[in-house]
Every structure is written in C-alpha cells, then in structure tokens.
Design brief:
By secondary structure, this protein is an all-alpha fold. It has two domains: about 5-90, Uncharacterised protein YqeY/AIM41, N-terminal domain (Hypothetical Protein Yqey, Chain: A, domain1, Orthogonal Bundle); about 95-145, Arc Repressor Mutant, subunit A (Orthogonal Bundle). Helix content is about 75%, strand content about 0%. It has seven helices and no strands. α1 (about 5-15) runs antiparallel to α2 (about 20-40), α5 packs across α6 (about 120-130) and α5 crosses α7 (about 135-145). The protein is globular, with a radius of gyration of 18 Å. The termini are far apart.
C-alpha cells in the first residue's frame, strides 16, 4: 500500500473516531502533499518523495517545539509534539547506529573515497542508499569522522 493511500485511510479512521487532534495533524500533511503535487504538476507522489516531505514537516515541528519551549508556551509545544509523533508514524524505521556506520564504510570503500574532499559524494550516495532512514546531519557527522 502506498503511503498516500495509507494517509487517506488513517485520516478516514481518525474522522470516524472523532479524534480532532489526529485529524488536524493528518490534514496538515495532506495539505502539504497537495501543494507539492501542484508544484511538481503530478497526480501522485512516489514513496520516496512522500518520505522526504514528511521528514521536512517533522523538522518544522521540531524547530517549532524548540522555539515554543524557549518562550515557555507549553500548550503550543505539546500540540507540535503530538503532530510530530503522528507524522513520524509515516517514516520508515531509522537505521541503527551500527547499520548506518556499516553503510557509510561500504559506501566509502565502494566510491574509493580517501579524504575530506570526497565527503560530498559519499554523503549523497549514503543518503540515496539510506532512503530516508537516516537524517543528513548524522550521515554528515559520521562521514566526517570516518574519512581521514
């Protein structure tokens, strides 16, 4: 089942259960997908594009949570945390640190990377292979640590 179909099914279930908070969070995601579809002039998104969009939305929520916490707005922060949790349900299971390190090492060997100059190519290749299961920040720091 594609992720877009799953989103529609979960939205319908939440509406039938009269779960207003969950409906709101799912509608926000559906709206973001609609805008991306208009931007891409497409009928549907691939699962990779869907995951990428969800990751961006999760990052927005994380940034908002940090700002609300700094301002002492606990109610707004709690709402954003709930939305983040709902959105994270659509993300694939993240790679364990050992799996990510093995993937980075394999990619470095595969590309023949020998110095920090090759870091960009390695990061890009790892992100493609990880397919949304690892964030760019952790990939970048691990590649920087493993390349001489």
């Amino acid at each position: 089942m594609s992720l877009q179909i799953r989103l529609n099914a979960e939205l319908k279930t939440a509406m039938l259960a009269k779960d207003a908070e969950r409906v709101g969070a799912l509608r926000l995601l559906k709206s973001a997908i609609g805008y991306l579809l208009i931007e891409k002039k497409a009928e549907s998104l691939s699962d990779a594009d869907f995951v990428s969009l969800v990751q961006k939305e999760v990052k927005k929520r994380q940034d908002a949570i940090e700002q609300y916490d700094l301002a002492g707005r606990t109610e707004s922060s709690a709402k954003e945390k709930f939305e983040r949790a709902v959105l994270e349900g659509f993300l694939p299971k993240p790679l364990a640190p050992e799996e990510l390190e093995a993937l980075v090492n394999a990619t470095i060997t595969e590309l023949g990377a020998t110095s920090k100059k090759d870091m960009g190519g390695v990061i890009k290749a790892v992100q493609t292979k990880a397919a949304g299961r690892a964030d760019g920040k952790s990939i970048s720091s691990l590649v920087g640590k493993l390349l001489p």
